[in-house]
Amino acid sequence: MNLNRLTSLSIFVDWGSAFLSWFLFYYSRKIIVEQVPFTTDKSFILGLIFIPFCWILLYYLQGSYYEIKRMYRLKSIALTISSSIIGNALIFFILILDDEIKYYSSYYISAGILFSTHFVATILPRIIISTIIVNQLSKKGKGFRTLLVGGGEKAIELYSELTQLPKKVNYFIGFVNLNGVDKKLEKKLAYLGHADEIEWVIKNEKIEEVIIALESTEHDKLKHLIGKIENGSTRIKILPDMYDIVSGNLKINNIFGALLIEINPEIMPFWQQAVKRFMDIILSTIAFFLCIPLYLISVVLVKISSPGNIFYLQERIGLNGKPFRIIKFRTMYENAEKSGPQLSSENDDRITPVGRFMRKTRLDEFPQFINVLKGDMSLVGPRPERQFYIDQITRIDAQFLHLTKVRPGITSWGQVKYGYAENVDQMLLRMKYDLIYLKNRSLALDLKILFYTVLIVLKAKGK
Questions:
Q1: What whole-number distance in Å separates Cα of residue 435 and Cα of residue 319?
Q2: Taking the chain (463 residues) in consecutive chunks of 10 residues, what is each chunk's mean pLDDT?
Q3: Within the chain, which residue ranges are assigned CATH 3.40.50.720?
Q4: What is the DSSP-derived secondary structure letter of residue 385?
Q5: CATH fold for domain 144-263
Q6: CB neighbour class for 129 (10 Å; exposed up to 12, middle 13-18, buried from 19)
């Protein structure tokens, strides 16, 4: 089934379950608790209209519709239990607790009816949908489109193991190898090219999972390989070595599956991602309107500082390597890069006197709230770079490619520490902080970085 249709079906079924559960709760409460005839009133009608939509919002923030094809039964049950506890507690305390009752025990009965009707009405259709998904994936040619990386004995053994599992969810499209064609594996799988071409293969073949089965002599190339693969949508799994098993790094969530470590690039839970984007939109909208006086002053200052355009538009690389045009107030004299891309330095004579002040206070970055509202950027995230410098950096350290797997930001931990980088070495130092941020992302860390950025602006200590 098409992913969009599957998601739409899940949302519709959840909406119907919430609608039915509110009807059953209201009916049962009238008959059992209040012991009066069932009648429809304003509260009942408003509940039928608004409560299902509130449930859908809660499910969305929880991540119930994220990667719906991977919504297995146990995961679906766990999400339903947690959402039922949270959602029904909110409904009980907001809508029910202030009702007039004869006996205090009526509250307990109402809470029990509320939870049980919602949980049963929700979990049964979810289990049915999850079962259908699993059965569909198990059919030949219907599983996750999978690419195998490797061509040695480990790759052959792993392929044989996965294709003999009782529930096959991996549909192998082919394999790529670091050392040319492997004749043994080629008899079983199509050879799709060298590992250097893996990005093209993933895009061209619409790969959903990559399983890496390298020989121990090839492990030094693993970091570079993973950096090229990670794109936010392709799952990456690797074979563990004995250290991973003994140290407890191997976590199994499928008892029928092979021993594989899943590389999880997404540290931030889905609900925090949703809240982060919501904060980006709300705070950027507020900041944009509050900064209108500053924009007007900046426009005048830039215009009188030197001839040229007020705004400076430059192509940067954003989420998943997609180019976009970043918006800044011009801080340099016109045609400052007529000789090609150049990084600025503290005493750069290309920077205008007004531009030097704007850089220290970060005023030149303020128009990027428009980039945030457009979805090109976030308030907090690794600073976007030009392709020219990305090519130079990745030749030294391919880990920089990890930074292009998330939405870039107006400010970042590296930006707070280093500000504008003057050379590639400083870019690499800044990269280390941004990589640490990437592996520890949270709303709390974002707020802390925003706080220090505000201090830099107020104190005019930017570089």
A1: 15
A2: 81 95 87 77 85 93 85 86 91 73 71 90 93 81 84 81 77 82 76 84 88 71 72 75 47 56 72 90 94 92 90 90 92 83 79 88 91 94 90 83 87 81 82 85 90 81 60
A3: 144-263
A4: -
A5: Rossmann fold (3.40.50)
A6: buried
